[in-house]
Design a protein that fits this description.
single chain, 82 residues
Amino acid sequence: MDAKLQQQLDGLITKYTELLLGQENEELKEKVKIWALYSHISKSMPPLAKHWNEQYPDAKEAMKELVSEIQELNKKNREKSE
């Protein structure tokens, strides 16, 4: 991938993470990337997500925890902004 595009996309993810969660760091950026990709896959190809969930039940649980964490951080960020 083009280095310039990669740098620009990284900036986009950084800003998205900051706006979504009210803070950003490398760990949160990675979590947001994983959450966004999984969310997209589960909406655009539900059978693939279902297969993956059945194939890797431990990963499914970890993904549920990740989604809950992002939702909670987003909720706190919205409450803080009000």
